[in-house]
Design brief:
Layout (H helix, E strand, L loop, with lengths): L2 E8 L7 E9 L2 E6 L10 E3 L4 E4 L1 E6 L37 H8 L2 E6 L7 E9 L5 H4 E11 L2 H6 L4 H13 L5 H7 L4 E6 L2 H14 L2 E6 L7 H7 L3 E3 L18 H8 L3 E3 L11 H10 L4 H6 L3 H6 L17 E4 L10 E6 L2 E5 L16
Parallel strand pairs: 1-4, 1-5, 6-7, 9-10, 10-11, 11-12, 12-13
Antiparallel strand pairs: 1-2, 2-3, 5-14, 7-8, 8-9, 14-15, 15-16
Helix pairs in contact: 4-6
Amino acid sequence: MNVAITNGYVVPMSGPPVEGGTVVIESGRIMAVGRGIAVPEGMPVVDAGGLWVLPGFVEAHTHLGLGEEGEDAAGEDLNETRVAAGAHLRAIDGVNPAEPGFADALSGGVTTAVVLPGSANPIGGQAMAVKCWGRTADEMVLRDPVGVKSALGENPKRRATSTRLGTAAVIRAALRDGRDDPVLRRVLDGELLWHQHVHRADDIATALRLADEFGHRLVLHHGTEAHLLADLLAEREIPVVIGPLLAGRSKVELRNRTMRGPALLAAAGVRVAITTDHSSVPVHLLVHQVTLAMKEGLPRQDALASITVDPARIMGLDDRVGALRPGLDGDVVLWSGDPLDVMSRALRVFVAGREVYRHEDGRRPEDGILGAYR
């Protein structure tokens, strides 16, 4: 799709903000960003009228379309509990694009989401990155897979194993035999990320131990106590997808949860992405978690980066999303004001240059799947 967004306060995340800036999108990709840019003849123009113009947010850890809201067992496709080591399981086979969470994501400025299987299994399956708009999961795919989900700590103990020893043993056995598994072979070769669900510091130490043993590229998810080992993570350049921050301490391993976690990790030099873990926290509240983290010491630039460029880099998607610069996808959001102000709204959302959400009428243009927002 082709469109030029003009006269906006453009925050590209790949450079300084631009007053009166223009973003030109041609065939779904950004062609130019800046001030004084000539709009190609005949291209549709959206006058931003001074609105804030940002890249679509990137949510690095969700269960969108797998754990469907309001559906109970009928929409619960998050955990295949009959399999302990499920590297062959694929998120794409369970995602329902009509799940209301995708519409909520757009209303909160989220255009890209990583969808992971759940944490009931030591190895839960393959994660995928999607755009939050489309009729089928195949149409929505940005990259599939983007890694393999694994879990340590309390969750897999509830169903797949009975101890932390047993959980680690299942993972170790699968990785030891991984050369015979096409997916795990890609993990061991460093091609795919190992997405590790982990909360407590001792479980983080186990994740590091396994990474040392098998050499896979580790990303920590949740990281409730990651700040206690921040120096070790920074030294090893291991990123943390931290959150959800707005949820309560619902189990023992969350007792040290703190809203200061992102600030403490960033101060130590750890690359951080903030997550809602949708549906633990509704996905459209992502930016508000960031605001609260900033309130607790996370610098503003790191705060915005935690839902744009940094999750894109962590997930290996920065060649497509996370910033406004030539060559990237034309995923652009027009905000009524500073998105870190709780009173600001995402007014218009574009995915690959196509307008897919407009706040004034509460609908996704050209989309008859979900209809009006509630």
